[in-house]
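Repro:
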Amino acid sequence: MRLLFLADVYGKPGVDAIERALPALRAELALDAVVVNAENAADGVGLTPRLADRLLAAGADCLTLGNHLWRRKEIGPYLTGSERVVRPANLLDRLPGRGLAFVPTADGAELAVINLLGSFTLEPAQTMFAIVDRLVDEARARTPFVLVDVHAEATSEKVALGWHLAGRVSAVCGTHTHVQTSDARVLPGGTAYITDAGMTGPHDSVIGAVKEQSLRRFLLQQPQRLEPATGDVRLEGLLVDVDGDGRATGAEALRRAVA
């Protein structure tokens, strides 16, 4: 099986990039499943039902979210009914949505997708380490193919989770910082890992936002509305090859310019 995880889709440039490039990329790379983090799709903060439907229609099999998921109030009812959009599992149980989803793949198998939120600065209801073992056991009872999106600020939390799950899941993909790290690898036992898969969107920016607006926020220390930039749009993520037992045999950071 060949999986592609695409990192934080940022604003209209990121959504447009998925729609333009993903269908051809699926064919070129012979992808069996594509998972996309979409928590910044709506003008850089949050996700709307309309944008979720567009990303799924463009070829994403499952969407993951993060700390900005409640920035669009209409997403709650959508999450209640969606089987292909997951939000961090370690939020309050009474909130709408699910933290684990099962999606069919092109080769006839099934991929489990788990979404988690780091504790440092993001303050979920409980630490991801308190629930991840239960989620992994639930996923593996149904399929050997398991991908985890760990949306976290702290590098240490993501690295620790990778080692904790080494040999038990197919891939652990870090998100949230929007800057792709250079540590894509296969951990012992067959778990593909990257600390941060990067950002799908405009890279002539400050992590997606217009540079001048971000600079004014830092230089003047005053609130500043941030808008998505437009230049140097790229797809970024992690490409993972997995054997029939769910063990990763290859992990490669992906970066593609989108004209």
